[in-house]
Design brief:
By secondary structure, this protein is α/β, with parallel strands linked by helices. It is about 30% helix and about 25% strand. It has a single domain (about 10-310), classed as Metallo-dependent phosphatases (Purple Acid Phosphatase, chain A, domain 2). The protein is globular. Fe (ii) ion binds near residues 51, 84 and 86.
Length: about 325
């Protein structure tokens, strides 16, 4: 067990590790550095919000499983994972893949790939509660007085509506199950968190990137659909924070009165030498978020945007608008 830190719970949030040992820059060393650093910071728990692998390769899941085991993390109290699109469909690795990728996605057995993911990390689901006998998503787990819930936001491939296999949606079935889990457990927990792969951020045109056509395609192919009902559900159950990845940025932000934290730039940020790790520090029902930036052997710690304002009690929370 980690030594006690100054908060009642410290959760390290990382995402989009994209382990890919078939290609030379596999991120294996970066992932080791990240796990070592998180343990040095005495985190009680690690939340990983999808795309643990880049190409959904069996070997990469095995490597991650062994790595987590080696660090003593392969159990429900220490680690929570949710699935990302790359963990099911993989990604485009070579120029030829651009043409063959849709066929590969079409041939992918979606359910088998979700099951394979949860099998590899099965110990992390061992103390969870589920509503559906057939699926580990959504799950709920209670750590002290913190409720962690996890969703699968990945949808099957579709030539028309999901042509890059990167759009997402929370099915009605999962939505209802999450509602029911929150009904059952919310009142016993002071802090409620949701883990999901897809982002809720609004895309802003990036003036430092010249290709606006590419940015438009990116916007259309990385969407989470049917967000409105999720905002309403998060509001109804007073969800304190939604943790996610997918869009390669690390930041805290508000949407419709709900607080979100993205860890998408853990490894794949704009600067390739940079690692970003989010730390969610929970005391009573207050959450303070720090983003630790590791670059060229230096570590910079900065409070995330809202946490800074909250600490000064200067923020007025926007009222939800649906
Ligand atoms: Fe993703």
């Amino acid at each position: 067990m980690p030594q006690k830190n100054e908060y009642s719970m410290k959760i390290a949030h990382i995402s989009d590790l994209h382990l890919n040992t078939f290609y030379s820059n596999s991120y294996f060393n970066e992932i080791k550095i990240i796990l070592k650093y998180i343990l040095s910071q005495k985190a009680d728990h690690i939340a990983i919000t999808g795309d643990l692998t880049d190409n959904a390769a069996e070997k990469d899941f095995e490597i991650l499983r062994n790595l987590f085991n080696g660090f003593g993390l392969m159990n429900s109290e220490r680690l929570s994972v949710v699935i990302g699109n790359h963990d099911i469909f993989g990604g485009v690795q070579t120029a030829e893949d651009i043409l063959s990728f849709p066929g590969k996605c079409m041939d992918t057995d979606y359910s088998a790939k979700v099951k394979r993911f949860t099998d590899y990390f099965r110990e992390t689901f061992s103390k969870c509660v589920f509503k559906n006998d057939e699926s580990y998503f959504p799950f709920a787990k209670i750590l002290d007085d913190v409720l962690l819930t996890g969703l699968n936001s990945i949808i099957p491939y579709s030539k028309l509506t999901n042509p890059f296999a990167s759009n997402g949606e929370i099915s009605l079935d999962q939505f209802n199950s999450l509602n029911s889990l929150l009904d059952d457990f919310s009142e016993f927990c002071k802090t409620k968190l949701v883990l999901v792969h897809h982002h809720f951020e609004k895309f802003k045109p990036d003036s430092s990137r010249s290709n606006s056509l590419f940015q438009n395609i990116e916007k259309q192919t990385m969407k989470l659909r049917k967000k409105k009902r999720l905002y309403e559900l998060f509001d109804k159950h007073k969800i304190d924070l939604v943790l996610h990845g997918h869009y390669h940025n690390s930041a805290e932000y508000m949407r419709k009165g709900i607080r979100f934290l993205n860890a998408g730039a853990t490894i794949k940020g704009r600067n390739l030498n940079e690692i970003n790790i989010n730390f969610v520090n929970i005391e009573e029902n207050k959450i303070k978020i720090d983003i630790h930036k590791l670059e060229n052997n230096t570590i910079k710690i900065k409070p995330a945007f809202l946490s800074d304002l909250l600490a000064q009690n200067e923020i007025k929370w926007p009222q939800p608008k649906f």
